[in-house]
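During the reporting period the student researcher (J.K.) took over the structure-prediction task from the postdoctoral fellow and processed the backlog of single-chain submissions. One of the processed entries is reproduced below for the supervisory committee.
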Amino acid sequence: MKFLICVVSCLLIIVTPYRPICKTILEGKMFNSCLKNALWLDVGRLSIGFGVGIICYVVPVYIAEITPKSHRGSFSSTNQLMGVLGFALVYFIGTIISWRSLAMISAIPCVVQIIGLFFIPESPRWLAKFGHEKEFEAALKQLRGKNADISEEAAEIREYMEILEQQKEASFLELFQKRYANSLVVGVGLMLLQQLGGNSPMAYYASTIFEEAGISTALGLQLSAIVQIPVAFLSLFLMDRSGRRPLLLVSAGGMCFACFLVGLSFCLKELPQLKALTPILALTGGLVSGSSFNIGLGVVPWIIMSEVFPINVKAQAGSLVTLVNWSVSWITTYYFNFMMEWSPAGTFFIFSGIGALTILFVAKLVPETKGRTLEEIQSSLTLIL
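J.K. obtained the following structure tokens:
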């Protein structure tokens, strides 16, 4: 449902300020806590699917547009960090309370967020694009501080917007022009490889994988939650220090190695003399996989996607990359069970191979965006062709 909805929902970004969109999204989570029957459950899930389809793109774009270039990666990483903390919390308390209670607890942060959205500024670049000059300067001043000199940054944004004004608003098909090819290859390629690497089915079927490998499901899930928290903090710390490309390379390498370990564990399961190694290798692979994903592939593709597309095609590009992400996630998750029936070892060896392919893709095609303004990144990618 998410990947079907995102085609329409992401197009709202082009004409709608980001804050009203986020307010609408957060209501879906609260809806789930007031369910009376199966119909309301479906409506609540539909609302959440609609919200996630928008917010997974709006949040990285909003953060990228309001933060200085020196801190853009770290601020964007907080989105992934909060997600990891949320998953960890659910893993623990979800085993001791009912799903309805869990939904009601989850509604509390949504209420806090809705209230908070009234106090955050609109994106300065969005305001500049639509000619709201006074609001543009006020928002930029609010974000940088009352005593900050915003003249240079404001001039760069205005200059870039003047260049974009000379071009008409691109349609969806115009996104596939040669001038946007480099950005498109990077954005879509990263989303494609992120999901083909198998993280979604490994997360959704973690309990099944641990059970197949002879590991306690509760132990495996709790260890996974504990390990991912410090890794998410590490990613936040390194994003604007080491850069995007190194984190992607380390992450893809870790996923490649982790999936190979899990595949090997299922191979050893068929050998009586080495069968005892299966739980150890599977658990190690599962922990390394989750950690590797969160340090790079889980967050960096969304950051880079929010950086590489010019604002005149950002809505169209956002709908496309989000569609690719969720559709491939659905495909890999749907076929995971069939693949496991075919060959558990073969399934993870395929994921390992995709991890190796991701390393090559990042090394050859993905640019480093650390320490560069959005205008510099987008201009350089367009001028390459």
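The committee noted the following: The two ends are 36 Å apart (CA to CA).
J.K. will present the remaining backlog at the next meeting.
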